[in-house]
């Protein structure tokens, strides 16, 4: 059974930093691209970032480019999102999401429950 | 960036009725790389449809996707009580970052 468990969320002041982690199990982690998708309270889904199966390529939404860094440790089956220069508008539940196709960028088939990041003074 | 516009914003229906949800793209979605997701309150989204018309594993056949180019549709025949939720379309053509529609709420 695929499991994605996010951690690292919490309350942070504007301008601060936070690192999210996602522990993955139940599939061959180093064969699949991984993604972060966020959802502000009461709002829709917003695509944040992606990383290929081997970490060779990374992608970012314009809203987070230059502030967020996605990475992965395939030896630990863990995905990360380093967030810096946080803004109030970054407040959201951050979901770790598995790509549906091996060694590709495709649809998003398994989602973690998410971790809440609140940016507020 | 490809903007996805979903309509209607809210669909009020009864169990047993048919739901038709629309997703329109601001530019052609190549190879029909369009997915649909269902999200219930307090839960993570679930993949329903990929490639515009292929059902994901374990998705009942009352869910179907259709369309191509810029116009896509999710149809739910015979709504079950558990189908009342918010539905999002998403395009994954070209390289990320990808985009989601704003969602359609299907309510009783």
Describe this protein's structure.
The complex is a heterodimer of chains A (121) and B (108). By secondary structure, chain A is mainly beta. Chain A contains no helices and eleven strands. In chain A, strands 2, 4, 5, 6, 9, 10 and 11 form a seven-stranded mixed sheet that branches. The mean pLDDT of chain A is 97. The model of chain B has no long low-confidence stretch (mean pLDDT 94). Chain B is mainly beta. In chain B, the strands form two sheets. In chain B, strands 2, 4, 5, 6, 9, 10 and 11 form a seven-stranded mixed sheet that branches. The chains are: A mainly beta (121), B mainly beta (108). The A-B interface holds A 35, 44-50, 59-62, 95, 100, 105-114 and B 33, 35, 37, 39, 43-47, 50-51, 56-57, 88, 90, 92, 95-103.
What does this entry show, briefly?
Chain A contains no helices and eleven strands. Chain A has strands at 3-7, 10-12, 18-25, 32-39, 45-51, 58-60, 68-73, 78-83, 92-102, 108-111, 115-119.
Please give a handful of descriptors for the protein shown.
heterodimer; A: 121 residues; mainly beta; seven-stranded mixed beta sheet; four-stranded antiparallel beta sheet; 55% strand; B: 108 residues; 11 strands; 0% helix; 47% strand
Q: Biggest chain pair contact, residues each? A: A-B, 24 and 25 residues
**Rg of chain B, alpha carbons:** 13 Å
Largest sheet of chain A: 7 strands, mixed
Q: Please provide the count of β strands of chain A.
A: 11
Oligomer: heterodimer
Strand content of chain B: over 45%
Low-confidence stretches of chain A: none
Low-confidence stretches of chain B: none
| Major sheet summary line of chain B | 7 strands, mixed
Categorize the overall geometry of chain B.
globular
Using only CA atoms, what is the Rg of chain A? 13 Å
- What is the number of helices of chain A? 0
**Overall outline of chain A:** globular
Q: Strand share of the residues of chain A?
A: over 45%
SSE arrangement of chain A, N to C? EEEEEEEEEEE
> Roughly how much helix do the residues of chain B carry, as a percent range?
under 10%
How does the helix and strand content of chain A classify structurally?
A: mainly beta
SSE ordering of chain B:
EEEEEEEEEEE
Helix content of chain A: under 10%
């Amino acid at each position: 059974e695929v499991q994605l468990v996010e951690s690292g969320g919490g309350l942070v002041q504007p301008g601060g930093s936070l690192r999210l982690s996602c522990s993955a199990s139940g599939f061959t982690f180093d064969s699949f691209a991984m993604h972060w998708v966020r959802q502000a309270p009461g709002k829709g889904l917003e695509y944040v970032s992606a990383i290929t199966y081997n970490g060779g390529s990374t992608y970012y939404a314009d809203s987070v480019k230059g502030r967020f860094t996605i990475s992965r440790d395939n030896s630990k089956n863990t995905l990360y999102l380093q967030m810096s220069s946080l803004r109030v508008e970054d407040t959201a539940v951050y979901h770790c999401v598995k790509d549906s196709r091996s060694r590709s960028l495709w649809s998003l088939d398994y989602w973690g429950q998410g971790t809440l990041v609140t940016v507020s003074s | 960036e490809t903007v996805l516009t979903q309509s209607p914003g809210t669909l009020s229906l009864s169990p047993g009725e048919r739901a038709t949800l629309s997703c329109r793209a601001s530019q052609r979605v190549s190879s029909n790389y369009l997915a649909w997701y269902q999200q219930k309150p307090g839960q993570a989204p679930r993949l329903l449809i990929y490639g515009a018309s292929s059902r994901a594993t374990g998705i009942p056949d009352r869910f179907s996707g259709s369309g191509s180019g810029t116009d896509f549709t999710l149809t739910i025949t015979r709504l079950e009580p558990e189908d009342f939720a918010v539905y999002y379309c998403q395009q994954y053509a070209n390289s990320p970052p990808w985009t989601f529609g704003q969602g359609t709420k299907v309510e009783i």
